[in-house]
Prior knowledge:
Blueprint: E1 4-5, E2 8-10, E3 32-34, E4 46-50, H1 53-56, E5 72-78, E6 88-97, E7 100-108, E8 123-129, E9 136-144, E10 150-158
Amino acid sequence: MRPLALALLLVACAAPGPPASASASGLPRLVLRDVEVEPLERPVAAIAIAFDAATGAELVAALPEGVDFATQALVCVYLGERPTSGWRLDLDSASLVDGELQILARENTPRGDGGEPQPTYPADCALLNREALPAGELAVRADDTISDEFIVSGSVVVPESRDGP
């Protein structure tokens, strides 16, 4: 299933996973772990979440080794086109707040002369413990930690985990 809604690329496939661990508040813990990947270029701002290797390959040039899609999801945030080189995006954290997955990211602007005059497509990806995501439709939003500006939002359908083979 790959619907596109509100500049959000949805990538969802069912995969098994263990039950989520709970935090002190009773909500599942979200762990956002950086991965070294080169996200594919996207001309518009988007959030994409992959729950299997085939769809993960549509988000990044090469999947990182050791990704276990039974317990992890690959989440990528794309800023869209920027007019010069030197732009960067770093994902900082993810949390579930009132039924919404909120991602905090840091958009880094070019320093000095503003970079070379060529379009670039800043993006960043991380691994998220997928068993902490509630099954069903989930609102997703990314905001900039420096400027507090909205980056992109939308919704995804998180597949239900299955126990056993």
